[in-house]
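hey so u asked for the seq, here:
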Amino acid sequence: MLRLIPYNRQAAVAYAHRWAFDRNPAFYDFSELGGDCTNFASQCLYAGTGIMNFTPEFGWYYIDVDNRSPSWTGVPFFWDFMVRNEVSDGPFGLQTSLNFIRPGDFVQIRFRTSGDVFAHTPVIVSVGNPPALDNILVAAHSNDADNRPLSTYEDVEEFRFLHILGAVLITENGDNGREEAEESGRT
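ran it, structure tokens below
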């Protein structure tokens, strides 16, 4: 059975504000291993959906530092998982323009120094009306920030925006799909 789980944007944003300048001890801090931005983004998204995808390599999950998917901590892998075409457990979204983003969505940043690679994944915590780079505020790890305007990032080559639509939960025989997450201590 296929269930669509609504995205709790308020929970994701509240999580972002709570942990922007701190680290949740339930998750490893990757700051010294290439950066913690996408790990933090994944935590925020999980706070708003409660659904992981435990498919090895191509899923989106975190059990511990040594047992996680590339999409949980890697900027391009996070994007690829969220905009995937196949139906599978976990959150999903689509690329959009800044005019259609909402708090709880994500932005990825490609810097001039990072070549063709997007290198940062902040979570959007506030959007002005009309949306503009100076009134879209983000929270992020690595360069810890909360309520930081996108316009303050320097040497930006490109922004891409990810609008989260919800999460999918595929169940069998009435299974509520949360046992694995509960066993891993993440709920």
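Residues 175-187 have pLDDT under 50 and may be disordered. Residues 2-183 form one domain.
lmk if thats what u needed
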